[in-house]
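help with this.
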Amino acid sequence: MNRRFIVAMLGIGVALLAACGPEQLPGDYRLPDGAVYQGELRDDLFHGQGTLTWPDGRRYEGGFVDGVMQGQGRRQDADGCVYEGAFVNGQPEGEGRYQCQDTVYEGTFAGGQPVRARVTYAESGVYEGELRDWQPQGEGTWTAPDGGVYRGTFADGEIVQGEYRLNDQRVYQGEFQDGLFHGDGELFLADGERRRGPFRHGTLDGPGRLITVNDDGEENSRQGFFVNGDFFTAPDGDQQRRRQRAERVEQRLYSEERRLQRALTALVPQKPGQRDIYVLLVGGDGRQTVFQKEVEWVAERLGARWQPRGHVLTLANGDHAGFPLATRTSLREALAALDAIADPDEDLVFVHLVSHGGRDGALVLNQPGLRLNDIGPADLAQWLDDLRPRWLWLVVSACYSGQWIEPLADRRRLIFTAAAADRSSFGCGDHSDRTWFSEALYGEALEQRGPDDPEALFQAASDQVAALESEQGIEEDQRSRPDVYLGKAFLDWWRRP
């Protein structure tokens, strides 16, 4: 990015103008370096409106005063970077707009550089505030692609002191380093809990204070020790944490089969002559709580709509999940159990998958302390092919989830994905309670549109996601672009009374 092109251009322009004789310059004049000037003159100098074009592709079009670029103008550099706005003494000065590739600066310039502007970055959000040497420096606000807002003091392009906020669900106040919570700070959670102490690379680690709020609104403050974000009253918390995790993993190994079988046997048989809806929810990556929170919330939303008591099966990974683990084996057994219970011609199987997604389309399955294999769209397609053909409504909320459509497309199926095959989706961090697409789909879209018209339901959710991404300053080529497949036979069957 050639951000200092004006300084160099001014030097060239002054030298060339000094070399010109006292004769009046013609209106189309070629300078010694090959540059061509077209425009107005006064007293042998460029003056008024004119255009300078260089052989290497550089071009200035706008005002001149006494041989110097002054007033409103447009400068395009050889690499395609463009400044449009006010010039003073040959440099950007005042209000202007500079774009180089996918980065755009809009605001106040001084000495050829932006000093206070709105900066839109292709992959890292939008910054508004003070700048120095083309980087955030001083007071400003940075809105990240996931909707998180950093507000405070910036130095060398990074926030160093201030506040992070995400939809009032998670607020941090304190020191930062490399964009992470680092130093003394306090974390405020949506349920009223507050965590205060030293942060290290995004995680509380050291002596601190945990403040919780009971149902009556009374605060309970405890002094203790944080180890990788976990709170302990004793200083050997790290050892306690390792022992506790090892104990939980061991217990899960011995109890998991019973847990899964209890969940499967709790499913109620379908009633002949009516449409039963069975729901399978899968939260894949247990390292972050957002996926477990999402499947619990989706179960509530669909339960309020369809009242599927005894018709919901949830698989979710995580240290605090009370559900059977989400593994390739448990998912396959769950599908087989639903195949045995649900009538393939009368009933619907609704599957919701949420996790991180890889560029190859694979859905991440991870349980802390256990190594699990991921699941790809070809895996699910094969498992479904091994079962009876049936009506299936599949929702996949993950990055690159559009890759699930082609392998699974079938006339008896409906498929919603949170992103196109080559796009990321948003809202999958610990600061979120659910992903953006699921929030839109099962929230306002389901409330307003209902499930009777799946095409309208998807469009409403997709429009809400696009509006949120636009609001957060996410560029068009970085947006998730949710995708859909609508099997004609499915739609005909679904719309029947």
Q: What stands out?
A: The radius of gyration is 30 Å. The first strand starts at residue 28 and ends at 30.
